[in-house]
Amino acid sequence: MKIWRRTAFSPFVVVVAFVLLGSVASAHHGRAGYGNEISAVKGTVTEVQWKNPHVFIAFDVKDDKGNVVHWLAELSSPATMLAAGMSRTTLKNGDEIVVKGKVGLEGAPFALVDSITKDGKAIVGDPNAEGRFINNTR
Amino acid sequence: MKNRTIILIVALVAVLPSAALAQGAQGAQSTEERGAQSSIPFPTGWRPCPRCQNNEDRRQDTIKYKVQSHQFDPHDLTGVWGYDGIGRAFNTPPDLTPSGKQQHDSTFGENAPDGTPLHSKDTSGRGAGAKINCDPLGWPRLYTYNYGFEFITLPDRVIQFFELNHTFRTIWTDGRKLPDDPPSPRWLGWNVGHWEGDTFVVESSGYDERPWLDASRPDGGWTHSDEMRVVERYRRVDFGTLESQVTVIDPKTYKEPWVTPKAVTKLVPGAELGEEFCVPSDYSHFNDDIFSAISGTKKK
User: Fold this and answer.
1) B133, B166, B294: best mutation site toward chain A, by most A Cβ within 10 Å?
2) Can you give the residue range of the structural domain that contains B116?
3) pTM of the full predicted structure?
4) Is 80 exceeded by the pLDDT of residue B252?
5) SS in 3 state form for chain A?
């Protein structure tokens, strides 16, 4: 099981980055702590937090020195996630995922999700239409 | 009656294949705005909440429930409407009174080192920036952002249920008058309603002054006083369309009434309200462990 560190700060993983226009209004909290670029992060799911106001996926990412870093991936509300095709059982502990999203500033291990892929299949959003999920959810 | 039943069956037989075709065709382009996945189906006999549906679901339900051609009683607002009501209508206020200006200034929160507002002092935290404390959203704010609402029309009252915070208000239509001096302020006010033609007019007063008019923005919010009166006008334009307008009258805060533009909310016939509680213990975790780190307000 190979886990990669967050791409924006690692030379080992391909970075896919798009500069996005503004953040979405009406989010349940400020998004000042997220950057504007979309990066890819690969890791292993450790917990699905199916709660209001937003669903979070905890996942572990191994950095380039082999240390495990605990990440949190932020999605939208449970209701919005059901509309987007994800339930509380879609992802399970141990699943290997690739999260694309806006990541925390200054290396903070947070990702505002734009897509999640498991076994090459998109679970959330569309990895080929970057920015769409982030810009249309809150 | 028998003829009508036969006609109905024939019509259903005629419509169902086309509806199925429409569903199939639209399903092929189900790359709706949030992603490429279909929504999670609900158990047989249960309907998803308004926000649990994606645009494709709503399009299909419009066909399935024949919303376009459905008969309706303009004096019956019953239905699940989704969502938000007037939306972000409170953007440009009338001139503020000195007291109103003082109140507005008190809503500003912390700024980032570069001067960018990080959050407001929102009383509920819903919207942007402030910590969520599950205080009620108040009125008319709940009609700007609510995840969907349902009107139930009864002989002596109209009840308006809201998915967000799983709450409701009662609009009395039994002829009672608003009290001159309500014994206790209410977050959602004291409400009475009457019909003017096909327009349902709701008048309210007796508000708790703590909540704001609208969802907060990082740079502050628009307040109201305990003297606020609100007049709402609802009109069911057709079976699937609700038009509404809100007027805030609060001379202690605003020099003139604040009248929102007319807004349109669509019926979501295939949805039913779910359960969107604000749970303090969940939000405590969100505020303390997640929000502050993400928002950049965590004390290091």
Assistant:
1) B294
2) 79-280
3) 0.81
4) yes
5) CCCCCCHHHCCCCCCCCCECCCCCCCCCCCCCCEEEEEEEEEEEEEEEECCCCCCEEEEEEECCCCCEEEEEEECCCHHHHHHCCCCCCCCCCCCEEEEEEEEEHHHCCEEEEEEEEECCEEEEECCCCCCHHHHHCC
Structural domain contains residue B297? no
User: Which residue on chain B is closest to A131 by alpha carbon?
Assistant: B34
**What tokens appear for B68 in the block?**
């376009």
The pLDDT of residue A7 is 36
Is residue B5 in a domain? Answer: no
CA nearest to B35, candidates B54, B57, B12: B54
Please indicate whether, in this complex, the C-beta atoms of B293 and A83 are within 8 angstroms of each other: no
Amino acid at A16: V
Q: How many domains does chain B have?
A: 1
Residue A53 and residue A63: Cα distance in Å, rounded? 30
Structure tokens at B151: 């009107």
**Distance, CA of A34 to CA of B22 (rounded, Å):** 40
Burial of A61 per CB tally in 10 Å (0-12, 13-18, 19+): buried
Does any domain span residue B24?
A: no
The strand pair at A110-118 and B241-249 is best described as unpaired
The Cα of A45 is separated from the nearest Cα of chain B by a number of Å equal to 17
Give the length of chain A. Answer: 138
Nearest residue in chain A measured CA to CA from B293: A33
Tell me the C-alpha distance between B244 and B237, whole Å.
Answer: 10
Q: Does B53 touch chain A (CB under 8 A)?
A: yes
Q: What is the pLDDT along chain A (138 residues), one digit of tens a residue?
A: 333 333 333 333 322 222 222 222 345 566 667 888 999 999 999 999 999 889 999 999 998 899 999 999 999 999 999 999 999 999 999 999 999 999 988 888 999 999 999 999 999 999 998 888 988 887
Q: Does B109 touch chain A (CB under 8 A)?
A: no
The residue ranking higher by pLDDT, B4 or A35, is: A35
Q: Is the confidence at residue B83, as pLDDT, over 90?
A: no
Domains and CATH numbers, chain A: 7-136 (2.40.50.140)
Alpha-carbon Rg for chain B in angstroms: 22
Nearest residue, CB atoms, B52 vs list A32, A79, A110:
A79
Contact B128 A123 (CB under 8 A): no
- Could you give the CA distance from residue B189 to residue B186 in angstroms, rounded to a whole number? 5
Question: Domain for residue B248, yes or no?
Answer: yes
Q: Where are the alpha helices (DSSP H) in chain B?
A: 2-28, 55-64, 98-105, 280-285, 292-295
